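Weekly puzzle thread! Below is a chain. First person to post its structure in token form gets bragging rights.
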Amino acid sequence: MATATSQYVRCFWSGSLYLTNGIVMPIHCKHISTKMIEVEAPSGLQGSKLVKLELKAIHEGRTAFIKILCDPSLDILNEHDKHTIRLKFHTIIEKDINFIKAFIAGHS
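Winning reply:
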């Protein structure tokens, strides 16, 4: 059985994805866990091997501005002509992990 913090739950936070070629894309979160995130973006990763993700997060009236360095693991064109991008967390601070844990626990 998965623990609340290892679960992958639906998420609707918005934010920005920064590619290594200088492009910044608006994204919204589809699913999140304490180890990875799946987002929807208007275009693909364009060869980026490490990306910066900034999220405007909200949970139970509390807000957070979460910054994460991520390793891309999946980039596919979905049925909405957008890209579904799965990212593994590379670098994230403990305070942001705790916010995500609380969000997951509240949606499990």
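Puzzle host: Confirmed. Bonus trivia for everyone else. The domain at 9-106 is CATH 2.40.10.220 (Thrombin, subunit H).
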